[in-house]
Design a protein that fits this description.
Shape: globular
Strand order of the largest sheet: 1-2-10-7-12-5-4-3
Number of domains: 1
CATH architecture: Sandwich
Number of helices: 8
Oligomer: single chain
Strand content: 15-25%
């Protein structure tokens, strides 16, 4: 897949206004077609990535009873450890499916905005992360990576603003206190191919503005549904993050940009389909009270919005709770 689109973020940031607009037009083309691209020269240090990767692997290597000490306290609680069989992502699209073949650790914002009193926000997106006791240093490595990808997401949103013919800082008021979540995902080694229809992660779209995915080098199985209705593999790109837009960005753009259906499949055993694999997914989500309504630049003269305005937080909460098994 040498044609998978790759954007040079540092190159964009160093460019003059004309070059930025040129790169923005290319991002617009990509987001109209698939909503998936890779970002290189992103500025996150190798050390930050290596530390969180090792911390996540060490956590998943623990015996189940130790991991389970950090479990989410009840179904629907957003953060902490979710063991195998706890989630079925295809259900967020109204599709009944077996539970996904994965386990995860999930963490939310590192702090709540001062003065926030909304109980739904405090009890959901700003609920405390249930931290594991082991491995040593896990929380520090996690928070360093969370901080780095939060900044990266804000920088990508500036690229998106240019791509949508908006001021480069247009989205900043919407993401001053984002309610983003970070997930470490572990797809365990399988002893035999799973039953028909049971995937590593069922077909779904992401819910927010954009997702920053760090797949395991050399891993396979991530697929997107093309406009022609065919499933196409997304390869890991060395030194890059895979970025995809989510449902809120599709709503913001009146479906000018697509929130593409994607899944993690079981590739054949002789191609590593039974092997363990790991990934880190950061789900960037605008502020709890951010009102998401169609952008003026995405409406033609006389055109009406496809979607009613929604608030970012309650919209996310409704989507998340559909996936709980």
């Amino acid at each position: 897949m040498s044609d998978f689109p790759v954007i040079d973020l540092a190159g964009f940031e160093a460019a003059d206004p004309d070059k930025k607009r040129q790169m923005g037009r290319e991002v617009d083309r990509i987001c109209r077609a698939s909503g998936f691209l890779a970002v290189v020269n992103h500025g996150i240090s190798d050390e930050t990535i290596a530390n969180v990767w090792a911390a996540a692997r060490a956590f998943f290597d623990l015996p189940y009873d130790l991991k389970d000490q950090a479990r989410a306290p009840y179904p629907g609680y957003p953060y902490g450890y979710l063991g195998p069989g706890a989630e079925a992502l295809a259900r967020s699209k109204g599709v009944e499916s077996p539970p996904d073949l994965k386990e995860s650790f999930n963490g939310g914002p590192l702090s709540a905005p001062e003065g926030l009193t909304d109980e739904e926000a405090l009890n959901f997106c700003y609920a405390p992360t249930i931290w594991p006791r082991d491995p040593q240093g896990f929380r520090g490595d996690w928070e360093a990576y969370y901080t780095a990808v939060t900044d990266l997401a804000a920088r990508i949103m500036r690229v998106f603003a240019v791509a949508l013919d908006l001021d480069e800082a247009y989205f900043e008021p919407f993401i001053a206190n984002p309610i983003s979540a970070l997930r470490a995902l572990n797809y365990p080694e399988l002893a035999a191919p799973p039953p028909e229809g049971q995937l590593r992660a069922g077909a779904h779209t992401d819910y927010g503005s954009l997702t920053i995915l760090l797949p395991q080098p050399g891993s396979r199985g991530l697929e997107i549904l093309t406009p022609e209705g065919a499933w196409r593999e997304v390869p890991p790109v060395d030194g890059a993050f895979v970025i995809n837009i989510g449902d809120l960005m599709a709503r913001w753009t009146n479906d000018r940009w697509v929130s593409t259906l994607h899944r993690v499949v079981n590739v054949p055993p002789d191609q590593g389909g039974l092997d363990r694999r790991q990934s880190l997914a950061f789900f960037h989500q605008p502020d709890w009270f951010a009102a998401i309504e169609t952008l003026p630049s995405c409406l033609a003269a006389g055109e009406t919005p496809t979607y009613e305005p929604v608030l970012s937080g309650p919209y996310l909460m409704g989507k998340f709770r559909k996936t709980v098994v």
